[in-house]
Sequence to fold (162 residues):
Amino acid sequence: MKAKNAEMANELLKVELPSGSYGDLISETEPAKGVIELRYLCQMRGYSGWHWLLTLTQPDKRKPATFSELNLVASEDALLAPEWVPWTERLSEFRKQLRAEGKAETDDEADELIQALVVSDDKKSDDSKGDSNHGSVQPPLKTRVRQRRIKHSEQDEDQNPN
Fold:
């Protein structure tokens, strides 16, 4: 039965994953009744120690197993991203570094240096017309209110015919 599952899994992996992204079968386990998990070595660049986990379900042993899900999971010796450090802590460390190197004496000077390093595509504009619709001219407020009142009164007349 294991050979059939491995053969089916190999066919699924060929369809689901790019060629060369998975390696040899590492293990085949049955964590629960009717559930089969197959682990394959991940050979994608940057995923050292990761495994492809293919889950098959087979509630009835007389029928073939069906594909359930495919996951990329980290093993115990997997290459993982470093712990997340909040921005405020990273910024304070950078300020300390700038002061230690003699590039800044205060946090304000360090902030100015940091601001000079920041590349931004956002262009701030003081022009309030920048967000307006230049394609049309708005009618005066009195005209819009008058038109709205006329429209409402016409609807009321249609609803109550005499």
Remarks:
- The mean pLDDT is 80.
- The beta strands are 22-32, 35-42, 50-57, 66-74.
- The first strand starts at residue 22 and ends at 32.
- DSSP finds four helices and four strands in the chain.
